[in-house]
Write a structure and sequence with these properties.
This protein has 260 residues and is an alpha+beta fold. It has two domains: 74 residues, Glutaredoxin (3-Layer(aba) Sandwich), CATH 3.40.30.10; 174 residues, Glutathione S-transferase Yfyf (Class Pi), Chain A, domain 2. The chain is 64% helix and 6% strand. The chain is built from 13 helices and four strands. The chain has a four-stranded mixed β-sheet with strand order 2-1-3-4, covered by helices on one side. Helix 4 crosses helix 6 and helix 4 runs parallel beside helix 8. It is globular. The model has no long low-confidence stretch (mean pLDDT 96). Bound molecules: glutathione (GSH). Glutathione binds next to helix 1, helix 3 and helix 4. The site of glutathione has 13 residues, from helix 1, helix 3 and helix 4.
Amino acid sequence: MRLYHNPMSSCSQKVRMALAEKGLAFEDTVLDLQKGDQFDPAYMALNPNAVVPTLEDHGNVLIESTLINEYLDDAYPEVALKPAEPAARHRMRLLCKQIDNALHPACAVITYAIGVRPSLLARPKDEVTALVNKIPDPARREARRQVVDLGVAAPAFREAMLTHRNLFDTAEEMLKGSVWLAAESFSLADCALLPYALRIDHLGQGDEISSRPGLARWYQQIQARPAYAEAVTRWLSDQMVGGLRKAGDAVRADVAAVLN
Ligand SMILES: N[C@@H](CCC(=O)N[C@@H](CS)C(=O)NCC(=O)O)C(=O)O
């Protein structure tokens, strides 16, 4: 099994979490997303969307993190990460869908507006424009251009923060009745939400988690799992996390002003 991924990428964290929960070993290829490795034609032959992760397993090439996790659970069912009960399974899938449709694009917006923009602004403008122009999806490309130009003042940034609040409210409701998001047992829904809680925390907006008691409890609980150390902590560097936190501190007042 080979995973093409990036240490900090949220979708890669989601898949690494499922792999670790299942105790599955894998070889890996790390892509530098700021350098543009994802646009390499050889990689795009595997993943035409020019994004990570991609999984190769027994000659199959699998893309889309949520579907990769579903594949892993089907192919390696010994440690089950889908609830047995059909309604709980639907809750799990609905949350994964909401995350893919709304939260993930919103996370890309806040990550670039706060965390990545400072390093992009330090690079030659035509180099950054060329990188943005390579994004195949027009909506993603336009959102990226907006946040590179305007940072947290971009209209897309405020929308993205509100999308996070919406999804975190949904999660808070789900956690009122159960230990984990979709059921009493840990599931792919927990793997799916984790990277976004982590990212908002790293970007200096951890109040969005700590102000919701159920989510705060869940966030602590998931970080205590052995799979978290294997799938997340092992891949984080102090330099990367420190860079995000520093960038978050620098725009804290601006973010508060935009949200008020
Ligand atoms: N829907 C895709 C989204 C993947 C995605 O957006 N990956 C990001 C990292 S989390 C990426 O590769 N970005 C590259 C870029 O923005 O150019 C999935 O779930 O796998």
